[in-house]
Specification:
MetI-like fold; 59% helix; D-Maltodextrin-Binding Protein, domain 2; three-stranded parallel β-sheet
């Protein structure tokens, strides 16, 4: 019997780690069977891709929809942070990525690319009063802002003497340039021109594009049939004239007229745009609701797990205490962002596919449980040991004494630190933007980029976070007063 079991385990492991069989479904067959082309995008890069309330717009968006129509399927766009978009492509979360992705040798070594669909290049933006920066060589000795993980960053890092400052979105780099914290910003030419026209009228672009870059649709290795189908769709779109129509809408004179009408000739003259807040407050509420759900569910699941870990750690038996201690040290000693990435991007390699929302919940729960366990453990150890001894002398079991004597007092003492953990959890939930969840911070990123108005959007985000945390602190203060031990003078 043992031999049979061992052989079964060996066969299972071989099946798990051997390459997929030749009869496995191809990428194109999967797309056609599902009737949708799942496209990953970081919708914070106008005019190529932006999002507002779950609605995607931009040049890449319309082109992606046209490609899907030519293939006889529908396009489904999935929003994700740019620093996590390629791992998500590799683990099968997307069929393709359209997010102003420059075709580079480094990326081509690990991904497939369609034929180029847009010619771009890097351009320099400076303040209107800047006279000594016109070409890339003038950036030596200067602080230059770029969006993280873009070709602008890679190009400048190869240039000696340039101090590269990295930002999550290009609008934040332009804001820092306007605030005179950096000397220049380098980015894709159409994006810089759009942002400056939209809100940063104190800035200007100088010189010409100093790189020749081509944007392509990224696909996972092994998706050759899907790449051929996408290329064929691109060629048909170009031949029919639809590509020129989409390009004119987003980059031609029609785009400039539409932008002037929507911005009133530039919205950047006002530090805070109340009209914009009135138009967008419902979107902030949507992000606020997701943030609240993430925090409440994670705290609700983390509390019992943390309590069990604390109870295990205060045991005299090392069989229970040691694993709990190792868990706590690992979760507290590694960044929450890495834990989120592991659950969402790495586990699918082992056949465990968890949706983005529940991946975020699991990561936040497991991380918060480690900290909550330490709070409970400190509370338990703060109770005088004589109380446990007295309870045991009265005939109570250890479990009865813990449940009836120790834990009720512990709960009263740990309310303040648990409140702090709840507030920290609310703010830590912003890290789930890496896996494309549009909670409050991600909502702010999308809107700040779409309207090039960080000075309007981010203060509103801060106010909404305060609306979440303020009631929590008030409830904690009430419970603290109610449960405060009565003392005799």
């Amino acid at each position: 019997m043992k031999h049979i079991i061992s052989r079964a385990v060996a066969i299972f492991l071989l099946l798990l780690f051997l390459p997929a069989p030749s009869f496995a479904q191809s990428a194109l067959e999967r797309v056609r069977k599902n009737g949708e082309l799942r496209i990953g995008t970081d919708a914070t890069y106008p005019p190529f891709e932006t999002a507002e309330g779950g609605t995607f717009t931009g040049f890449d968006i319309e082109l992606g929809e046209a490609i899907a129509r030519e293939m006889g399927v529908r396009a489904t766009f999935i929003n994700a942070g740019f620093d996590g978009i390629f791992p998500a492509l590799q683990n099968g979360s997307f069929d393709a990525v359209m997010s102003s992705v420059t075709i580079t040798p480094e990326r081509s070594a690990s991904m497939l690319f369609s034929e180029p669909y847009y010619d771009s290049g890097q351009l320099i933006a400076v303040r209107q009063d800047t006279q000594n920066i016109n070409v890339p060589d003038d950036l030596t000795g200067k602080k230059v802002g770029v969006q993280i993980n873009t070709t602008a960053q890679y190009d400048l890092e190869k240039r000696a003497g340039v101090q590269v400052e990295k930002y999550n979105t290009i609008d934040l780099a332009l804001q820092d340039l306007q605030n005179k914290r950096i000397d220049a910003v380098v980015g894709d030419a159409p994006v810089l021109k759009w942002m400056i026209f939209q809100s940063f009228r104190q800035l200007k672009t100088v010189g010409r594009r100093f790189t020749d870059e081509k944007f392509g649709i990224a696909l996972a290795q092994g998706s050759d049939d899907l790449r051929r189908a996408i290329n064929a769709a691109l060629w048909r779109i170009e031949d029919s004239g639809e590509y020129n129509r989409i390009h004119e809408k987003w980059f031609g004179e029609a785009a400039e007229r539409a932008l002037a009408q929507t911005t009133g000739g530039g919205a950047g003259s006002r530090a805070f745009n109340f009209d914009l807040v009135r138009r967008l407050w419902r979107l902030f509420l949507s992000g606020l609701w997701l943030t609240a759900r993430l925090a409440i569910l994670s705290l609700a699941f983390g509390l019992p797990v943390g309590l069990l870990l604390a109870l295990a750690r205060v045991q005299s038996s090392k069989i229970l205490a040691a694993p709990a201690a190792v868990y706590v040290e690992v979760m507290r000693g590694t960044p929450l962002l890495v834990q989120i990435l592991f659950i969402y991007f790495v586990l699918p390699s082992f056949g465990v596919n968890i949706p983005a929302f529940w991946s975020g919940i699991i990561a936040l729960t497991l991380n918060s449980a480690a900290y909550i366990s330490e709070i409970f453990r400190a509370g338990i150890l703060s109770i005088d040991v004589g109380q446990m001894e007295a309870a045991r002398s009265l005939g109570m079991t250890y479990a009865q004494a813990m449940r009836r004597i120790i834990l009720p007092q512990t709960f009263r003492r740990v309310v303040p630190p648990l409140t702090n953990e709840g507030i920290a959890l609310l703010k830590d939930s912003s890290l789930v933007t890496i896996i494309g969840l549009t909670e409050l911070t991600r909502t702010g990123q999308e809107l700040a980029s779409r309207y090039a108005a960080p000075l309007t959007i981010w203060p509103v985000v801060a106010i909404f976070y305060l609306l979440l945390t303020f009631p929590l602190t008030r409830v904690a203060e009430y419970l603290e007063r109610r449960w405060r031990p009565v003392t005799r003078s």
